[in-house]
Write the structure tokens for this entry.
Amino acid sequence: MTGRQRERRHRRTGAALVAAGVLAGVGLGTAGCSGGDAVAGGARGGDAVGALRQAADRLVDARSSKARTSMEMAAGGTRVTIRGAGVYDYRKRMGQLKVLLPQDPAGTAERRPITELLAPGALFMKNRGAGVPPDKWVRVDTRTLSDGNLVTGGATDPFTAAEVLLGTRTATYVGRTEVAGTGVRHYRGTADLGAAARRASAGNKGPLQAAAKGFATAEVPFDAYLDDEGRIRKVRHRFSFLNGRQKSPVAVASTTLLYDFGASARVRLPETGDIYAGKIAEE
């Protein structure tokens, strides 16, 4: 096998590294957003579309935060959730998460957390298993993923999740509520991945363009919760994509919770010698 063939094989395998075996045959039936093309106004709601499109910039102003993620799916009537927690630097667009996979179908095997490093154009994973030495990292070129790494890693990159809102087409102001004790404004709407890609930062243009083409639909229903400084405290996206094993679209709900803004978020990417270059076994 040539080096180019190995590289293509690694990219294909990487696209299923975390989500393989979990995404196959799943379908989350979560309802979409509010109907109509209404854009919220009024003294409390303000310009909903404008506020949502500015949310990513407000995160950059905040520099960094801690993050919790969850990705919910259902297969054969059983709901599974992949959870993650870590930190993110919005100026460097780098983050680190510990992602915990569900138990195996038999419910007997306890899975170690996978360490994920998020960087522009790349996803690094440690404790991958499946033939990868425990001290090595697996690198995935996220620009080659048909979902733009919105789903593949089992957690949506927090800054990418924010930049999806750049494609907000319609939105309504639902009202005031609280997220983890912080007062927020709740918005519900629909974003277009193609429009988000056109407005996104350089590092997210390619992945979002890929997702716009690779998903079953470029429309992404969402619920977003912004604090009084316009920063995202919580955002929940509902993605729909076509899985090769399924005839109908698969739905996944991805939730990102952001808090403790300004927290230390030092992320160190692995050296070349620490990245695994061998064959990755299928799980």
